[in-house]
Amino acid sequence: VYDLDINYTALKMYASTHGRGFWELDVNYSVNSTGINDNKMALASNSTNAAAMYAYRTRPTFNDTVLSAKYYHNNDGLATLSMSTVNGYWYNSAFNGYSAIFSNFGVRIVRESNYISTDLATKYLSINSGDTIAFKRFGDSLITYVNGIQVLTATDSTYKNFISVGAYLSINQNKTSQLDDFAIYNVNDYPNVEYTPIINLGV
User: Fold this and answer.
1) How many angstroms from the chain centroid is the CA of residue 116?
2) Distance of CA 131 to the CA centre of its chain
3) pLDDT given at position 63
4) Residue 177 burial (CB < 10 Å; 0-12/13-18/19+)?
């Protein structure tokens, strides 16, 4: 998948591929008292090619927030949760903001500046399939969680006034990966929050 967009008014997802056509899919999303269930991202690769996909959502300007999702994988690839000061994501804009990158090798907190990534903190640990991953910005603090437990922190004051959040998946050949129950929380609600998905996108 080379491009993925969601029309929240028409409740449609549009995906374009390299040589495999243009796809349209119905989506649903709902809001509950604690977070936004922003549907499921599912990715599969064949024996020849690796695969990647991304999605982002524009929000009213914010500074402090928490992004969370369940991450399913085959001991391969990575999942990224990001917040950006521009409306877009890596492959279609100059992305300025912060990312938390999770893989079965560990966690990285990264500052993204016009396609240049700078590691702010790194920690080696096992991210198991089905773990809940989360990325929080609170003031100048950047904090990652696995299953509600804080695992890595960094401090940076370069960017403020974010306008979009995003998620990215990447895998090698013959693998699958998925982010489910993607949610956005207020910083005071996480990790002491009970969140039950209402509607998911069936992929």
Assistant:
1) 18
2) 14
3) 85
4) buried
